[in-house]
TrEMBL record:
SsuA/THI5-like domain span: 55-242
Name assigned to this protein: NitT/TauT family transport system substrate-binding protein
UniProt entry keywords in alphabetical sequence: Signal
GO CC aspect terms: periplasmic space
Family under the similarity heading: Belongs to the bacterial solute-binding protein SsuA/TauA family.
Subcellular location: Periplasm
Signal sequence bounds: 1-26
Amino acid sequence: MTIDRRNLIKGAAFAAAVTAVAPAWAQDDPLRVAMGDIASVESLNLLIAMERAEERGVPMELTYFNSEDVAVQAVLSGEADIGVGAPYAFIQNSDAPIRMFYRMSTLLFFPVVNSEVYSGWEDLDGQEVTVHSRGSGTEALMRLMEKVHDIEYSNISYVPGSEVRAGAMLQGTVNASIVDAANFRLLKEQGGEKFMRLPIEGVNATDEALYANTQVLEERADDIQVFVEELLRTWQDIDEDPSIVGELREQYGLLPDLPDEAASEAVPYYTEAVENGVYPTDGGEPADAKDDIAFLSAAGQVEGDPEQVDASRYWDFGPLEAAKSAN
């Protein structure tokens, strides 16, 4: 599997991205996956599934972009075939020809503050908070809490990478952010009572999904099906035994540049994630779209009644159904 790291400058013409025609594919062309994030232990399950798809004859290529909105533009323009994210708002606002086809994870994030500065949600009124990226689940969750607690942030800063935001909190340059379970544990281990988790309730929504241009889903259906089969197998294997992540990371030589401290967190991270149901083993279903729209509309990112949502506007469950039928 090829991994490419790029730091693309945001601002490619949106109209050009939407209207660009995807190229014709040769049989040995890789499925190019665009991720608007940095390499981390959270990526390991996806990387393992990609390696397994390659073993079955589907070449894969992963490119790291500097934000999710740049990644989605890469998918629209044909520079990438598959994106990582949950682009409901993007699809609704642009009617872009992209559809999600595999639900990778559900939201389990930890809004956290420096307790020496803030003691609750109400203290964040008029203050700055830091999230992953524009349009991300971290932003939606923080926007929702803004409404729930009748507060208004002075600014939202975008800093990709949960470990990067945790590091900024440890350094004292950020006092209010949102991180994943592994990095909340890191904050507690290194900062003790200095870092406090703020409460959230009643949130059930997709954190990340895989999506593709509808032309890719149609013309590369066989390759997509193999990939989805390996995603399902990998998610199930991890659900049954999270320690397999460490074994497969070594077997495939994944993320060799990870610091030892971060690498040692891989198995504990997936163990905790499995316990909390972060990685669903069914790949998603139409009912999830309703939950997502309910969450995102409450957060002010999309419009519409979740009970009236047409899941096919956002999802194509064909690859998932085909993969399940093949097993």
